[in-house]
Amino acid sequence: MEVRVKINKNMEKLTETINGVSFNMIPINGGSFMMGSPETEVGRKDDETQHEVKLSGFMIGETQVSQELWEAVMGNNPSRFKGENRPVENVNWDDTKLFCDRLSQRTGKPFRLPTEAEWEYACRAGTTTPFHTGNNLTTEQANYDGNYPYNGNPNGIHIGITTPVKSYAANAWGLYDMHGNVREWCNDWYGAYATDLQTNPTGAATGLYRLMRGGSSANYAAYCRAAYRSHNSPENRYGNIGLRLVY
To answer: Which residue in 24, 105, 199, 235 has its CB near the most CB atoms, within 10 A?
Structure first.
């Protein structure tokens, strides 16, 4: 299926500032895309059934939420790998919900976690390949465990910790670290995909696990694919799970 996306070149990223810490939100225009992966994609899992999704426009964080921004809002820094420009991690789903609520109160804007569909749409940035970089992802393009490259490609490096946001090139829509660095909590409960056309889907009504997307510095390249669906108990905290904002 042809990906139908209209990008408004006149729309500029918006900058918010909290306690002296600034962060950018990128406008994403609505459109249609095929969510999931084709059966021929290397590393594909059974829960990645392709289906058409239509989305309304939204704003999404240019980067993963940094430790500096988290501390400006929450007054603490729970991260294992400290650095003000590194992504915050070691936060569970409830922590991120509280962060979004407090940020919303401060700014008057309805900050939240992305839906799984919004995340994948933004990650792909109009592409249909396993990664927004194409059919391969190198460790010069993202922070993941280069000992486990994708589809038999050459090994890369394994840093083993997070890197500062914007350490790697952005995708075509100006978003950084959509592959690797830290996995990103999504708003949805984990569940099976519908197979028919979906408009602004929000995932399963209930569940045991919340979705995470994007892979991390500790993951194999195959787990950083745009379609890969990671999930975990919402109360768990790890040093490779963070978040990205949407409204």
So the answer is: 24
